[in-house]
Amino acid sequence: MEWLKNIFGQKNKRIYLDYAAATPVLPEVRKEMEKYFSKDFYNPNAIYEEGEKVRKEVEEYRAKIAKLIGSASKDIIFTGGGTEANVMAIRGVKPGRIVFDGEVHPSVQEAAKNMAGQEVVLVSSVTTDNKLGRAIREKKRKTGKEYPLLHIDASQTAAYYNVGLEALACDLLTLDSAKLYGPKGCGALVVRRSAQISLPPPGTPAVPLIAGFAKALEIAVRDREAEYKRLDSLSAWFAGEILRSLPRAEAVLISPNIINVSIPGVLPELPVLALDRKGILVSAGPACNSQKPEPSETPVRLSLGRFTSENEVKKAAKIFCETVRNLLK
What we know:
This is Aminotransferase class V domain-containing protein. The two termini are 40 Å apart. Helix 3 runs parallel beside helix 8 (207-245) and helix 8 crosses helix 10 (310-328). The strands form 3 sheets. This protein has a 6-stranded mixed beta sheet, with helices on both faces. The protein folds into 2 domains: 2-25 and 224-328, Alpha-Beta Complex (Aspartate Aminotransferase, domain 1); 27-221, Aspartate Aminotransferase, domain 2 (3-Layer(aba) Sandwich). Helix content is 43%, strand content 15%. By secondary structure, it is of the alpha/beta class.
């Protein structure tokens, strides 16, 4: 674990609680990627032997990802990350109205701007069960229509829930390697073959990133149950401590590893910056919006991860409560 201590700064004991924004690349993932940087660097679109070999390996990684989420290899469209997959899903459907819930990523909201019409052509959500999908399928069966399609952004949930087209009864699925302890800049849009959407022409596959993505997802699925239980317990304790110590605060668990804390009358940037000075790394809303002023009602987001320890959670909770009390004076 020395490599992780070096990343997060063992000397000043900074505690990282922003795993929903970024995760470190696991050693096993990095090892899987290494050979494609200098040894097997060939373009998989080339028709000579070396290129054909790399292309075959890319397809093997595609098949591995498909198997892990219970879909077909042809369903997997590699992207430059979760945001790109979301935009492709939203803008790929036929013209019409897009409906989404309040928890969707900002990229979904942005992509859906100026898309209007009487017919709802797509519903986008971050749900982790299949109730919404089954309800939409039943509605389509009764009406005989192909729409609306259901898109699920599983970027934040693939590490803790069984995600896939059948598991969630959806038509489109977003995955993001960067949220799974894999490399940044890689993800996938999974498209049910019966779904009618327009996709841009594919570019040259980012082979090292695809290799790392496949390995990271494999590890996430392997450890999913254990990590869910461990982080859910730590998050519940953290939220309970905040509610006990800060009666004015509201702490909500929105997944096994994410706690949203709202503090009435306090702009979210204030506790984020104050905690940073005390060695606790948290965020105010999604990382992609972190450079923009957040509305006052935006919660402070604490997200635990694979390397969060019980001692870190206890120390962070104490510092968090002390910091907020000082801000409320």
